């Protein structure tokens, strides 16, 4: 009896160690949410248990003295204030340890930074309207405090995003991520990434056949991954993939190839963190994350 009781904690410790060893190589999944009103709610997205990061897409207008504009497609109307209802969903996500970020930029939109002062005022705006600041600014997503900001700058203008990254990090606890395209260096984000301020870099391995998966061949992808992870200083790197063949013009990797071939080829190279999936709508349609979770 006494011996058995003594063994119980030892056994529990061994099981814990075994569980930790078993999950050492497991990566995270990050997903973009917000560009399709039919993708389900933010709370449902987080309650799926699939994701470690949910990135709200996008703040499509900012900088150059413009009034910033949030665009969450059919989910809510920032102009009328209805997006403040997302605060409780954000808190639902965060209570599960999921980090929620606001993505600035996107493939369409009107954005750019004209000077260091302009970058600093955008940083102030983001801090007070979405992050930990409280200067009385309107908060489009209500009282919830987001975990950080994602830079998805795609218009080829790179000026002063390094200033913006430095200013945001200077505010305190702000996670920074970036979503460059896979050709290295990125046309818009290269100077910002040189600051070394980014926690996560999710590289878009799609719409770029020269560096993405194409025609059953991952050679270009693996080479680009190696270049990125050895050239940029960041906390971790994520393989950005389309969630279905409809999610991007090219670069789709079927789930079996991703987990059987591509992930094994890159997860030992550089600071691998997991995969980024574009986007939640297509992920629901194709159950992509559901099929690969546990093997990324
Ligand atoms: C998604 O795929 C996983 C793995 O095959 C499966 O367990 C899960 O039930 C699927 N989810 C849906 C919604 O089909």
Automatic annotation (TrEMBL):
Name of the molecule in the record: chitinase
Q: The GH18 domain covers which part of the protein?
A: 27-296
Indicate whether Signal appears among the record's keywords: yes
Please provide the Gene Ontology terms (biological process) for this protein.
Answer: chitin catabolic process; polysaccharide catabolic process
Gene3D superfamilies xref list: Glycosidases
Sorted alphabetically, the keyword list is: Carbohydrate metabolism, Chitin degradation, Disulfide bond, Glycosidase, Hydrolase, Polysaccharide degradation, Secreted, Signal
Q: Which organism is it from?
A: Miscanthus lutarioriparius
Q: What is its EC number?
A: 3.2.1.14
